Amino acid sequence: MSSKKLWAIIISLVIVGGIIGGLVSAVNDSTNAQKISLSEAQTIVNNELDAMAITDSMKVVADANSIKVNKLSYGSEKNIILNCTVQSLDVYSALSGHYNRFMSINPKKDDDSMYKTETKIKQEFDGQIAEFIRIAEPTTQNCVIEIFDTHKGFKVHTTENVINVVFGNALKTRNEVLAIETYVDDEGKEQPIESANVNKGFVKCITPRYETQKPDASNAIGRAWNSLKKDFYRNFIEADRWKTIVAGLGNTLKLTFFSLIIGIILGFLVAFVRCTYLKQSKKGVFLKISNAICQVYLSVIRGTPAIVQITIIYFVIFMPLGVDKFVAAVVCFGINSGAYVAEIVRGGIMSVDEGQTEAGRSLGFGYMSTMYHIVFPQAFKAVLPALANEFVVLLKETSIAFYIGIGDIMYSVNAIRAATYTPFMPLIAAAIIYFILVVILSKLVSLLERRLRKSER
């Protein structure tokens, strides 16, 4: 190896190593937070926690509480650890003896036709709960509060323990109220709560707005990476949502397989009728009618969108008959694919030299035998790439099956999008799955083409 090549390799490795090292250090940025005083830390904590009080009940607590920062230290994640003494109104003690008073309130609307929403019940409860809290006894506790130096400024890490200390065990109260299923009526009898909206409306009054997730104090690259990891977890790992996509993939493959079988059978039959009509000099009445039906079929299917076809076939024809939506989709895609397969195969058959047919007839073969043994094998080799393309199109076209409620890949990713409100990750997952399926199908077809070429030799 020449010295020039050696130096080129060394320089390249240094550059690549520098880039990788820079990216790693950027992602794992762990510099300390900027220095602040005790009074500044106390102001940050007060402002952040006061902003979490969004109901009258919680504002009473926020106005009355007192947070004193005794000592601070700096962590390795751009965080500041505060040892605090918190004096707050005891929400739990103030409300725990009055659960029955609120749970016994009738949640029905005035016309008695439906239950009040939890928001409506919250509006009715909030003022009364605030009055009970206002006369509550104060409680003093020590706790550790962390604040993080993020790109949006200092953010408090509001764990449930911090919320309970600052807001007088509000979350403990919330958990107890949500677990209540009965109340005691005026006669001392235990009665079931008519609507869970009563519990939910109650806890809305005593739940501050908070985020338990640790604030992201990393730089832009780190935040982007963390955001991707978070989205991945929410969309696929959380609640085992990946199983939904696996189930959708199974339905897509089944739908494609059965539709493909119908499409191939129907396509070859239509192609045979059309070619027979074009090749035969004497055309009987049956052949003319069959050819006319095939032409209408081809014109209608190729002239209308697949989404229109599937909605008509299911909602207009099959659903009134009680036929399963999966069967309707298979029939629709099979009929749709058959029209394109028919024209592909017809073109392949017509491309076979007429002398091949004449040679077969001269050897004593009938028309059907000639087509089966001589014409079809040659036509199949010629149209295989076009047929493979049609199979790929069919696989991708099944993605519209979710319009009639079939749990395919697109139905699954749309369900995930609705649950997580993050469209990017589920749609990218669907695109990757379809891409992999198409690559696998294309590879199988290329192997078949190679096998056919070997048989020719």
3D structure, described in words:
With 457 residues, the protein is an alpha+beta fold. The protein has 2 domains: 38-220, no CATH class; 242-456, MetI-like fold (Orthogonal Bundle). Helix content is 66%, strand content 10%. It contains 18 helices and 6 strands. It has helices spanning 3-27, 38-50, 56-64, 91-95, 99-103, 118-134, 160-166, 170-178, 197-205, 220-237, 242-279, 285-303, 306-321, 325-351, 354-362, 367-397, 409-420, 424-456; strands spanning 66-74, 79-89, 138-150, 153-157, 182-184, 190-192. The strands form 2 sheets. It has a 4-stranded antiparallel sheet. A hairpin with a 4-residue loop joins β1 and β2. It is elongated, with a radius of gyration of 36 Å. The relative contact order is 0.08. The mean pLDDT is 86.
Q: Uncertain runs with pLDDT below 50, 5 residues or more?
A: none
Largest sheet: 4 strands, antiparallel
The number of E-state strands comes to 6
Mean pLDDT: 86
The CATH first-level class of the largest domain comes to Mainly Alpha
Category from helices, strands and their pairing: alpha+beta
CATH architecture of the largest domain: Orthogonal Bundle
Shape: elongated
Side by side, the strands of the main sheet go: 1-2-3-4
- Rounded to an integer in angstroms, the radius of gyration calculated over CA atoms is 36 Å
